[in-house]
Amino acid sequence: MADVQWLSIDILPIDEQFLQLLEHKQLKKDMSVYKEVIQYVLHQLQTDKDVKTARVMKIIGQDIPEITALGNALLQNSKDSAPVAQELYRQAMLAGDDQGSFSYASMLYRGYGGTPTDEEEATKLFSRLSKKGHPYAQMNLASIIMRSHPQRVSDAIQLYELAGKSGVSDAYMELGRMYRLGYGVHQDHQKAKHYFQQGTENGMSNPRCHFMLGVYCSSPENESDLRKAFQHFQVAAAKGLPEAQYNVGLRYLKGQGVDANPYNAAEFFTMASLQDFQIAQVNLANMYLHGNGIKKDMNKASYWFGKAAALGGTIGNEAKSQLVQLQAKESNTCAVM
Predict the structure, then answer these.
(1) What's the pLDDT at 183?
(2) C-alpha to C-alpha distance for 335 and 171, rounded to whole angstroms
(3) Percentage, residues of the chain above pLDDT 70
(4) Is residue 92 situated within a structural domain?
(5) Domains of the chain: total
(6) Which domain holds residue 24?
(7) How far apart are CA 196 and CA 177, in angstroms?
């Protein structure tokens, strides 16, 4: 068990955070109730005694989901609270809460915050929840199968499809990725596109699925496909995907699938650059360097070349070279003046 001797009631959210949790209905009881639960669980863990589910239930007013909600609140507040949160999830599981069981299994599998791992037990829990129709457990179990038992790929596919039908769009992303790369299956781009498409339908709008459809539509020979590519990239960009933001910027810059607009290109390159998307930083630096669509600004050009250079790699080395040249040019200009 992780060290809990130094933990105290301070792992609870402070009053301001607590009020926000109440406002967003993440918690719904008085702070005194949660303090009593934490004090009891902490005491039992620190004295190496069993936590009694009946006692926890009595304190929490028989509100089983609230045990899980308290565990969530603790983890949001501090990673140090992981041992207590894990025990709360275990208590919720013992009381019959599937979400608590899922959270407990997830912590068991990953060992979050220094808590002990037990992959075998976690897998059993994910399997049990999957049979009950828990979509995120189905996702996790499918992922475990693909890593540990690739010969059972058909089971993984079935689990991903069940999760997808329950509204977990990432399941369709995983299926599309498998068929695109030939991971555990024969490579099949038609099936890949089919699954990526499913991840954008029926109320789902998975940004990575949109991005991959944009990639598939990026054929320079077909203007109609280029327009579709731009639309997919645009949806993914609006959801914050930096590679999509870069691609929208690139298409505005080159006029592919949309009318050329350097100003808009710079806007989207900036969005991606702020998320450390390296090639967007280089493009943005060059736009500032040449005043393409935006006002020429040597300081900003240097800044973005520097940011890209700091990320290293081939692109980083090229950015560093451009930065050195820019600084040398500025130095010579100052010397002449």
Answers:
(1) 94
(2) 60
(3) 91
(4) yes
(5) 1
(6) 1-129
(7) 8
Q: Is 60 exposed, middle or buried (0-12, 13-18, 19+ CB in 10 A)?
A: buried
Burial of 39 (C-beta count, 10 Å sphere; 0-12/13-18/19+): middle
**For residue 230, pLDDT beyond 50:** yes
The two tokens of residue 315 are: 């692109």
Place of tokens 């350097």: 262
Helix, coil or strand: residue 25:
coil
Contact 262, 292 (CB under 8 A): yes
Q: Tokens 């590679």 appear where?
A: 243
Confirm whether 268 is domain-assigned: no
In a 10 Å sphere around its CB, with 0-12 CB exposed, 13-18 middle and 19+ buried, how is residue 26 labelled?
Answer: middle
CA 103 to chain CA centroid, nearest Å: 17
Q: How far is the first Cα of the chain from the last one, in angstroms, to the nearest whole number?
A: 68
pLDDT at residue 187, rounded to an integer: 96
How far, in Å, are 112, 171, 259 from residue 265 at the CA level? 40, 32, 11
296 neighbors 289 (Cβ within 8 angstroms): yes
Question: Domain for residue 33, yes or no?
Answer: yes
Q: pLDDT of 173-228, one tens digit each?
A: 999 999 999 999 999 999 999 999 999 998 899 999 999 999 999 877 677 899 99
- Residue 106's CB is within 10 A of a number of other CB atoms, namely 18
Examine residue 107 and state whether it is found in any structural domain, yes or no.
Answer: yes
31 by DSSP, 3-state: which? helix
Read off the tokens for 236. Answer: 């993914």
**CATH number of the domain where residue 36 is located:** 1.25.40
Cα–Cα distances in Å, from 204 out to 62, 100, 131, 200? 35, 25, 24, 5
pLDDT tens string 56-105? 999 999 999 999 999 998 888 777 788 889 999 999 999 999 999 999 99
**Would you state the torsion angle of the CA atoms of residues 220, 222, 227, 232, taken in this order, to the nearest 10 degrees?**
-70
Q: Which range is least confidently modeled, 23-37, 46-60, 246-260, 300-314?
A: 23-37
**pTM of the prediction?**
0.85
